[in-house]
Structures are given as C-alpha cells and as structure tokens.
C-alpha cells in the first residue's frame, strides 16, 4: 500500500496552466453573470503553489486498474492564488434596472448611464476542507463530487480594497460564486476533462495528471503504481525464464526452484500433446497423473473459464502483496467481478487456480498487448519467446502432469475445475463449499508451510487426480502463509499451468487477468480498504452474477470459433471475440 | 412602431389634453427614436380592435424561440376616436421619428372639468385601465392612469411574474404639468426606489394670456428646457442623479428643425450629447456622443431616418352639372393648398462605433402595418446577421 503524492509535476507542466486557465475562463463565463459584471471574466494568472493539499483516505470502495472509487478528506491551506480580470458596472442604478421588467421601469434619462471599471481580483490564501467522493472509470471518465461545501475561507484582494464597502461586497459575492463553482461547475469540468484525456488511450501520464487535477490539486496516485509495475514484472518473468531455462520459457519466472521441478521428458510429452491439439492429430501422449481438459465436458470448460479468469488476477495480487485476503480483484475485462465478492475462501481458490493460469499466461500476455499498449515490455518478451512459445505451451502442461516436476497446487487445479464446475452452477459457491469442506484436510497443513511446493510436489499428482477439493484447500494455506515468501515464483509458475487447464478457451480469459496482474499488484491497498464497503460488495456480487452468466453464455457460443482460431493463430494473436469489445 | 395599445393610450393623452412630451424623461425622445429603436426579433403578429370608443383588445403571437403570445385589454372612461383600422392609421402617429416639439399650451382650469346637475357634481375623472397577460410565461402587466385634474396625472403600473423578486413590482408615478414646468415623483416597490424629476421650460409662460407673436425673423426660434432627476433606492442604499438640457426649434421656425440635448451624470462622470436635425422634408439625421470623464470611455452613434411619402392623387376636376346647364365653365378657383402627403414607409438605420448596425423598415402593406428589422454586427465576420424580424399588425 503506497501513495505517491505528486504535486510538482502539476506545476512542472508548462501546458497545464494554460489549459487550466482556459478551462476556468470558459467555466466562469458560462453561467449567467450578475449584471454588475459587464465583461468576460478572464483568468489572468493561476498558480497552484508549492504546498500540496493534505489528503486523507477515508474509504476506498472499489479499485481496479480502470476503475476507482473512494472517499477522501482533503484539507488545503497552501499558497495557490488566482487572479481574475473583468470589468464591473459601477452604477448601481444601471444594474438595478438590468433585470427589471421595462414595464415598471422608472425610465431614468441619464441617471442610469454606465461607468465600467476594470477590476482585478486576486484570490489567495485559499483554505479548503472537504470530503471528496471520487469515482473513476475508464469508460465513463472521472467524477468528483464534494460532499460538503469545500470552501473554508479565502482572501479576496481587488482594486477596490481601499473602499471597505466594495471590498466586503466583493468578498461576499466571490465566495458565493466560488462555492457554486466548486460544487456545480468543477465536477462537470473535471468530468469533461477526464473524458477528453482518456479517449486517446495511451495516456497514463496524462491520466495521472488529470486525476491529480481533478482531485482538486490533491494527487492520488493509487492507480499509477500498477502501471509502472507491470512492465517490470513482465520483464523479470520473461527475462529470467529465458536465461535460466532453455526448454521451458514459460516456467521461467523468478522461481529458481521451479526449474528443477520439470523433467525434460514430461516437457516433451506436453509439447507433443499441444501439437496434437493444434494439428488435430488423434495422438495423445500419455502423461501420468494428469487429467486432460479435453476429457471434460464442454459445459465444465465454460465454468472453469469463468472461474479461472478472476482467479488469475488474484494470484498476482497475492504475489506482489502480502497475500492477505484479496477482497476486490477486478480484472480489467470485468469478467472476474462476479467471483470477487471475495472472502478468504475465494482467495484460496484463486491461489489454487494459479496453477491453471500458467498456461494462460501466454495468451493473456498476447492479449494484453493487443488491448493495452502500455505494457510494452510484455510484447518484447513475447517476441523473444515466440519460438519457444509453442514448445513452452506444450511443456507447461507437462508441469501439471508431471508428478515430480510441479506438485504445487497448480496441478490440482485443472482437475478441480474440470470436475467441479458441472456440479455447482456458480463458481463462487463451488469454491466456498470446497474450501470449507476440505479445509481440515491434512494437505492444508502441508501446504501451509512456506516450502509447500516441495512438500506438495509428491502428493499433488495423486490429489489432483482423485480429489479436486483438496487442491482448493491447498490453495488456501498457500495464500495465507506460503504466498508471502514465494508469491512471485508461485504466480509465475501458475500461469503456464493454467494454460494447460484452461486450454484455448481459458486462455483468452486468463490473458486478461494476467495483464491486470501487474496493475493489481498495488491492489493490496484496495483490498484492505474494501471491507468497509460491505454494501458495495453485495451490489457487486449481484451485478457480477448476472455478468458472469452472460459471459458464460457468450463464451459458449463463441467457443468453437476460439478453437479454430487458436489452432490457426497458435492462440496468441486473436483474442476471443467476446473479449474484444472489452479490450479497450 | 407603436403597438396598438400604446397608440390607444396616446389617443387617451390627446383626448384628455395631456402633454406627454413635457417631461424630463422625454427630453431625449427624438434621439431615442432615431438611435435606440428596437429591431424586431422573429416573427410577430398582432390583431387588435377598438371595438368601442371605450374598449380595445389586442392579441399578439410571436415566435422568439418558441411560440409565445399575449392578450391585452384596455378600457378608457373617455371615449376615444382615433382611426383604428390599420388601413387608415396615420403612419406618423404610430412611428416614432424625429419628434417636433409643439408650442406649449395652457392647461385647462380644473373648474372647466366640473359638471353640475341639479346642484350636484357628477363629473368623473378620466381613467384608463389596461391589462396584458403574457403566455406562456404567465406574466401579467397592469396599468392604471387617472387624470385627477387637468394638470395632474397618476400612473400606476404593475408587473406580476413569479420569476421576479417578490413576485412582481409596482411603480407609482405622479405627474404634475403646468406647461411652464413639470414635475414628477415616482416610487417603485422594487428596491424602494424613490424618484424625482423636473423640467423647466424657458421662455414665455403659456399660462399668461398675452401671447407674443412668434418672432420668426430670428435665426432660431425654439425653446430651451432644462431639467434634473434624482433617484434613491431606499432598500439598497443606492442612488442616481442626472441633469439635462435641450434646445429644440418650434414649428414656427423657418429654418431647419433641430434638436440638441446635453445630459450629465455627475456621479458617474457621464456626458452625453445628441444632435438631431431634420435635414430635409423626408430625412432626419441624428448623432449621439457619450463620454465618461472617469473611465475615458466614449461612444458614438449615428442614425438616420428616411420617410417615403406619397402625395395623394389630385382629383380630376369635371365640369359641374350646374355649369353645364348654363353653358359655361366652372368658376376658376384658386388652387386649394396641397393636401399633406401620405407616409408610405420609414427606413431607419443606425450604426455605432462598434459597427453594430440596426435597420428598420416600417410601413403599410395593404391593410397591414409591418415592421421589418435586422441587427447586424460587422465585427463578427462569421455571422454578422444577429437578428432579423418581422412584425405585422392588423387592427379594426
């Protein structure tokens, strides 16, 4: 959990002040002006000062890479100032007549003749204190609302300071105007600004600035962190893998332990297996203690797919984060939301699913690239891997199957998905129940140890085949205890595994979550705050349930396309149609 | 162009022998008519009728943005007989142009209004009631004019509109005019505004019976008037004051009729001068110059109006039957003085230093009185035509 308050970038951008001035000018001139102001109000000077506002996070109700909602308490007592220029009508009789019906006008002959005076007003020593509700979504832009009247006090100095009457009047009038500006106009401005900024997609930086601006000069960089982190992750994973492992590019990840776990033989077998999938050859290499996805019914797949997608993001978050309960992990694609009402049990599930995600990692990355241009690094990694990718895929399954190689939860996962989905309609329910039932199983104990990979490695194969449930349990402990140490390696390994399990269909979904992972890594912040918004959770759950059902339906329909497309494209390039619109 | 109700109201002033021009608020009436005429916006149509000498109605419909309209009724205790058919209304009675101020006349004595019958006085004071309802804004205007005596007039005008503060406003205006001078006091409920206006006419006092014959040999034969106004808003503690003077030639003046005014606003440092001249029989020119001694802002405005006249066709004379019977020609009569020409239309134009141009063409087409106008802003190249409008009036 980290917040990075960036005040200086705002001021550093030369263009920013110009834009802000224009915005303010139009905003000030939009609303009907009092008759005393006879000219346009020009923003002459604007300076945000050097003192940043104090920002206190009261609540974060929703956090994802493309979405954010939170409540802040903002206090500002900095040295920002604003200079306005306009002309005012000095004849009170003139302004008096302005809005009066002519029928009852006294029709003065010349007593109402005007005298316009140029006026320069400087607003300084602004004291703000407000509760801010900030809602951000990539599609709908940024909405900022003040819960209360933010303006505490300000100093108005003008050309008429020597005349106390005028000074008081101006002070009063300007405070009033400013209040309406803050309460009504500012949210609209910010919203427009955000929409304008986010339309072109690549503007992470602009985004940050905007957000900072929008929050009324408070910079909140929660969303920013994720962006910065992902590329690094990708690089690490890919880079390491490549260097360390010649054979399996996928398994790579930081985990040095993992490498040793894969046997050459199994990898080859897996490679043959994937090849057979692609070529439609009927040959299936026998892999011990492995359950093939293809055996499971189509319906299961759908379920598994739905389940798997949410999972992956969680995994990631765990890895990077302290692995506490990940209440909200929203994949960018919205797929995962439904699952996420996250409870600890769910979390465990996700960790378990990590295994599945292994295979998907590939796809996800590829999708990532398409959807998100930001993750440049990933792309490169891919290109590098391309040659290996196919083999990698084939090999990844090897892990799952191979008893000695990767005993981790991963291997279990595929089974779990395959077997369980048909029984329980909703992924959540299933997961919970499983976790609950199995929670006490001995395996948990085993897994709970940080070295679980080593421990479980032997056991896993059996469990995986026989009992789907235990796997889940395993996952739980992993999350709670193990994950801290091994999170990173674990997650990395998980991707390939998932790929196997999910196969082509899962892959697209998995892809999304993975892409999120980097972004989600900061998510821990959110997760902690999340408990606060219980109501929100419920709403989410409901909404997501509907969403998931719809997704599943879509997927089913599109599945066959996927298969074909995957075979052709080697699964990397074409995202499933269902996802494309979301790819944003 | 005056609306029909204003036309009837003017007829009421005439019928009750009230000199509405002899007021400080009308000091610059000529310049206002030539320079500050309103250009119509959108399309407007009004149907009016003076159904009886005491009662007039008018319905108006307009399209400014959306359709709106108004209903108005007028009652006058004094029988009014102005020409009310739009085909017969004298255009110069409804078009405000160069205003030739008239010689002052002696107001009637109040006893002249007394009517006695059987030892009891039964005369009534002339009153005018007028109401107008605007739809769909639901704005109501009401006007009450009463002539308590030949030298006084009381005018109450009220507006009711929910959008106004306090739901509306009432203006009470008391006018006292003895010809030589006039004074007005007013009070408005809006802001508690109190106002005083006075106008003094230099020269002969019309109340004196002995009237000197106009000395037409002077280069200028005219009248100088001076006045002042003072306002004080009792609720908002604001005020205003202005002084003004006017010199205008009288009808007996042989040369070019002209009107010049100067108004000062000492509080705001505003000086305004206007000069209007009736350069020809059909042409009037006017200029206005404003200057503010505090802000050094100035404003210049020029305007003109052009009257298009049509002389009535002369009757073709025929020999009278009597002359034919007697086998002789008609007696040769000296030519009767030419009848005053009829006004066909008026073109008004104004331009100010910001190149804002206003154009107005008023006239009569068949039985309809029309006003066609446009305002143009030459500074805005992209869209110079700011407004254009046409108003039609029909009355019977």
From TrEMBL, chain A:
<keyword id="KW-0445">Lipid transport</keyword>
<dbReference type="GO" id="GO:0015914">
    <property type="term" value="P:phospholipid transport"/>
</dbReference>
<dbReference type="InterPro" id="IPR058825">
    <property type="entry name" value="MDM34_N"/>
</dbReference>
<dbReference type="InterPro" id="IPR027536">
    <property type="entry name" value="MDM34"/>
</dbReference>
<feature type="region of interest" description="Disordered">
    <location>
        <begin position="436"/>
        <end position="459"/>
    </location>
</feature>
<protein>
    <recommendedName>
        <fullName>Mitochondrial distribution and morphology protein 34</fullName>
    </recommendedName>
</protein>
<comment type="subunit">
    <text>Component of the ER-mitochondria encounter structure (ERMES) or MDM complex, composed of MMM1, MDM10, MDM12 and MDM34.</text>
</comment>
<dbReference type="GO" id="GO:1990456">
    <property type="term" value="P:mitochondrion-endoplasmic reticulum membrane tethering"/>
</dbReference>
<comment type="similarity">
    <text>Belongs to the MDM34 family.</text>
</comment>
<comment type="function">
    <text>Component of the ERMES/MDM complex, which serves as a molecular tether to connect the endoplasmic reticulum (ER) and mitochondria. Components of this complex are involved in the control of mitochondrial shape and protein biogenesis, and function in nonvesicular lipid trafficking between the ER and mitochondria. MDM34 is required for the interaction of the ER-resident membrane protein MMM1 and the outer mitochondrial membrane-resident beta-barrel protein MDM10.</text>
</comment>
<keyword id="KW-0496">Mitochondrion</keyword>
<keyword id="KW-0472">Membrane</keyword>
<feature type="region of interest" description="Disordered">
    <location>
        <begin position="208"/>
        <end position="236"/>
    </location>
</feature>
<feature type="compositionally biased region" description="Basic and acidic residues">
    <location>
        <begin position="208"/>
        <end position="220"/>
    </location>
</feature>
<feature type="compositionally biased region" description="Polar residues">
    <location>
        <begin position="436"/>
        <end position="456"/>
    </location>
</feature>
<dbReference type="GO" id="GO:0007005">
    <property type="term" value="P:mitochondrion organization"/>
</dbReference>
<dbReference type="GO" id="GO:0032865">
    <property type="term" value="C:ERMES complex"/>
</dbReference>
<dbReference type="Pfam" id="PF26545">
    <property type="entry name" value="Mdm34_N"/>
</dbReference>
<keyword id="KW-0446">Lipid-binding</keyword>
<feature type="region of interest" description="Disordered">
    <location>
        <begin position="383"/>
        <end position="405"/>
    </location>
</feature>
<keyword id="KW-1134">Transmembrane beta strand</keyword>
<feature type="domain" description="SMP-LTD">
    <location>
        <begin position="1"/>
        <end position="195"/>
    </location>
</feature>
TrEMBL record, chain B:
<dbReference type="GO" id="GO:0045040">
    <property type="term" value="P:protein insertion into mitochondrial outer membrane"/>
</dbReference>
<keyword id="KW-1134">Transmembrane beta strand</keyword>
<dbReference type="GO" id="GO:0001401">
    <property type="term" value="C:SAM complex"/>
</dbReference>
<dbReference type="GO" id="GO:0070096">
    <property type="term" value="P:mitochondrial outer membrane translocase complex assembly"/>
</dbReference>
<dbReference type="GO" id="GO:0032865">
    <property type="term" value="C:ERMES complex"/>
</dbReference>
<keyword id="KW-0496">Mitochondrion</keyword>
<dbReference type="Pfam" id="PF12519">
    <property type="entry name" value="MDM10"/>
</dbReference>
<dbReference type="GO" id="GO:1990456">
    <property type="term" value="P:mitochondrion-endoplasmic reticulum membrane tethering"/>
</dbReference>
<dbReference type="InterPro" id="IPR023614">
    <property type="entry name" value="Porin_dom_sf"/>
</dbReference>
<protein>
    <recommendedName>
        <fullName>Mitochondrial distribution and morphology protein 10</fullName>
    </recommendedName>
</protein>
<keyword id="KW-0472">Membrane</keyword>
<comment type="function">
    <text>Component of the ERMES/MDM complex, which serves as a molecular tether to connect the endoplasmic reticulum and mitochondria. Components of this complex are involved in the control of mitochondrial shape and protein biogenesis and may function in phospholipid exchange. MDM10 is involved in the late assembly steps of the general translocase of the mitochondrial outer membrane (TOM complex). Functions in the TOM40-specific route of the assembly of outer membrane beta-barrel proteins, including the association of TOM40 with the receptor TOM22 and small TOM proteins.</text>
</comment>
<comment type="similarity">
    <text>Belongs to the MDM10 family.</text>
</comment>
<keyword id="KW-0812">Transmembrane</keyword>
<dbReference type="GO" id="GO:0051654">
    <property type="term" value="P:establishment of mitochondrion localization"/>
</dbReference>
<dbReference type="InterPro" id="IPR027539">
    <property type="entry name" value="Mdm10"/>
</dbReference>
<dbReference type="GO" id="GO:0015914">
    <property type="term" value="P:phospholipid transport"/>
</dbReference>
<comment type="subunit">
    <text>Component of the ER-mitochondria encounter structure (ERMES) or MDM complex, composed of MMM1, MDM10, MDM12 and MDM34. Associates with the mitochondrial outer membrane sorting assembly machinery SAM(core) complex.</text>
</comment>
<keyword id="KW-1000">Mitochondrion outer membrane</keyword>
């Amino acid at each position: 959990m980290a917040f990075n308050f960036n005040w200086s970038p705002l001021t550093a951008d030369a263009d920013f002040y110009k834009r802000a001035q224009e915005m303010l000018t139009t905003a000030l001139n939009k609303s009907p002006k009092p008759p005393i102001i006879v000219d346009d109000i020009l923003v002459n000077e604007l300076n945000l000062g050097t003192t940043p506002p104090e920002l206190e996070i009261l609540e974060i109700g929703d956090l994802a890479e493309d979405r954010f909602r939170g409540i802040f308490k903002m206090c500002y007592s900095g040295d920002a100032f604003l200079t306005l220029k306009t002309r005012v009508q000095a004849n009170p009789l003139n302004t008096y007549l302005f809005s009066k019906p002519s029928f009852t006008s006294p029709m003065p002959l010349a007593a109402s003749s005007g005298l316009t005076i140029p006026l320069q007003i400087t607003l300084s020593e602004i004291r703000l204190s407000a509760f801010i509700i900030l809602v951000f979504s990539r599609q709908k832009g940024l909405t900022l609302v003040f819960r209360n009247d933010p303006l505490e006090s300000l100093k108005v100095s003008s050309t008429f300071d020597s005349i106390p009457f005028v000074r008081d009047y101006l002070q009063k009038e300007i405070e009033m105007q400013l209040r309406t500006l803050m309460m009504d106009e500012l949210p609209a401005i910010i919203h427009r600004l955000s929409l304008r900024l986010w339309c072109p997609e690549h503007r992470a930086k602009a985004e940050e600035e905007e957000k900072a601006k929008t929050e009324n000069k408070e910079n909140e960089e929660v969303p920013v962190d994720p962006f910065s982190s992902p590329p690094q992750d990708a690089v690490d994973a890919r880079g390491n893998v490549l260097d360390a492992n010649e054979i399996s590019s996928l398994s790579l990840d930081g985990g040095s332990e993992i490498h040793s776990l894969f046997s050459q033989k199994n990898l080859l077998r897996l490679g043959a297996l994937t090849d057979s999938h692609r070529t439609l050859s009927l040959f299936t290499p026998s892999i011990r203690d492995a359950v093939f996805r293809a055996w499971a019914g189509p319906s299961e797949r759908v379920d598994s797919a739905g389940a798997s997608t949410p999972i992956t993001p969680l995994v990631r978050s765990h890895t990077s984060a302290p692995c506490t309960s990940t209440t909200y992990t929203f994949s960018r694609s919205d797929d995962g939301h439904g699952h996420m009402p996250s409870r600890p049990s769910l979390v465990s599930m996700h960790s378990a699913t990590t295994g599945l995600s292994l295979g998907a990692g590939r796809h996800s990355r590829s999708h990532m690239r398409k959807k998100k241009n930001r993750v440049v690094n990933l792309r490169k990694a891919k290109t590098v891997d391309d040659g290996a990718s196919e083999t990698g895929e084939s090999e990844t399954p090897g892990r799952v199957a191979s008893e000695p190689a990767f005993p981790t939860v991963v291997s279990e996962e595929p089974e779990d998905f395959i077997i369980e989905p048909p029984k329980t309609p909703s992924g959540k329910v299933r997961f919970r129940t499983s976790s609950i039932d199995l929670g006490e199983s001995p395996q948990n104990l085993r897994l709970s140890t940080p070295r679980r990979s080593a421990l479980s490695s032997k056991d896993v194969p059996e469990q995986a085949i026989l009992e789907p449930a235990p796997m889940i349990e395993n996952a739980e402990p992993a999350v709670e205890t193990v994950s801290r140490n091994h999170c990173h390696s674990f997650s990395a390994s998980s991707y390939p595994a998932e790929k196997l399990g999910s196969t082509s269909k899962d892959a697209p979904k998995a892809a999304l979550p993975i892409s999120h992972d980097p972004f989600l890594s900061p998510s821990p912040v959110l997760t902690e705050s999340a408990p606060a918004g219980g109501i929100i959770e419920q709403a989410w759950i409901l909404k997501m349930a509907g969403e998931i059902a719809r997704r599943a339906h879509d997927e089913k329909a599109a599945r066959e396309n996927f298969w074909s497309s995957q075979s052709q494209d080697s699964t990397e390039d074409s995202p499933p149609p269902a996802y494309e619109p979301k790819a944003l | 162009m005056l609306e029909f109700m204003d036309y009837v109201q003017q007829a009421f002033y005439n019928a009750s022998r009230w000199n509405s021009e002899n007021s400080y608020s009308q000091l610059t009436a000529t310049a206002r008519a030539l320079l500050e005429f309103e250009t119509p916006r959108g399309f407007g149509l009004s149907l009016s009728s003076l159904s009886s000498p005491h009662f007039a109605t008018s319905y108006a419909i307009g399209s400014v943005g959306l359709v709106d309209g108004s209903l108005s009724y007028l009652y006058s205790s004094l029988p009014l007989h102005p020409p009310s058919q739009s085909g017969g209304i004298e255009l110069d009675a409804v078009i405000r142009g160069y205003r030739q101020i008239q010689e002052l006349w002696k107001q009637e004595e109040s006893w002249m209004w007394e009517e006695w019958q059987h030892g009891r006085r039964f005369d009534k004071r002339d009153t005018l009631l007028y109401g107008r309802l605007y739809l769909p804004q639901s704005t109501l205007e009401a006007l009450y004019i009463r002539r308590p005596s030949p030298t006084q007039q009381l005018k109450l005008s009220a507006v009711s509109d929910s959008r106004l503060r306090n739901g509306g406003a009432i203006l009470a205006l008391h006018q006292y005019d003895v010809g030589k001078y006039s004074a007005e006091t007013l009070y408005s409920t809006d802001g508690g505004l109190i106002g005083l206006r006075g106008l003094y006419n230099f020269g002969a006092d019309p109340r004196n019976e002995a009237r000197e014959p106009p000395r037409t040999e002077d280069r200028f034969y005219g009248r100088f008037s001076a006045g002042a106004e003072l306002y004080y808003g009792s609720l908002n503690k604001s005020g205003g004051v202005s002084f003004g003077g006017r010199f205008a030639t009288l009808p007996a003046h042989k040369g070019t009729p002209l009107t010049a005014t100067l108004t000062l606003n000492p509080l705001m440092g505003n000086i305004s001068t206007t000069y209007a001249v009736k350069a020809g029989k059909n042409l009037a020119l006017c200029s206005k110059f404003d200057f503010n001694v505090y802000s050094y802002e100035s404003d210049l405005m020029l305007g003109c109006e052009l009257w298009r006249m049509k002389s009535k066709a002369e009757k073709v004379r025929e020999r009278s039957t009597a002359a034919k019977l007697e086998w002789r020609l008609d007696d040769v009569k000296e030519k009767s003085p030419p009848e005053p020409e009829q006004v066909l239309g008026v073109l008004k134009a104004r331009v100010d230093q910001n190149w804002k141009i206003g154009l107005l063409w008023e006239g009569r087409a068949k039985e309809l009185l029309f006003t066609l106008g446009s305002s143009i802003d030459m500074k805005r190249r992209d869209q110079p035509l700011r407004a254009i409008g046409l108003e039609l009036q029909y009355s019977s």
